Amino acid sequence: MRRLVAAVTAVVVLAGLMLAIVACGGADIAGTYKAEGDDPEFQSAALVINDDETFKVSVTIPGSDEEVSFTGTYTLDGDKITLSAEGMNETEAGTVEDGKLVFDEVTWVKE
Prior knowledge:
Lipocalin, alpha+beta, 1 helix, 8 strands
């Protein structure tokens, strides 16, 4: 149960990061992103940003084969990006910096 809660929390944070991907300085931000760093909660995480202002975050729960994912929409205003997860009443704000999406908890790098 504890791992499931950690995975769901990671997914919510990842959703916010997805929105940041969209703000890549007016560049084409659509694509698949991986979290930067060694945090085990994010090592299996992927953020997919679509051209239609939607995103999907997927993460495999550490120590299991169970995948948790969620979808949502994003808005981009200059170098500011905001991810809004569907059905969770959650948003995450970040910035686009040097081709990366930077949020409080994680930085996303395009594959």
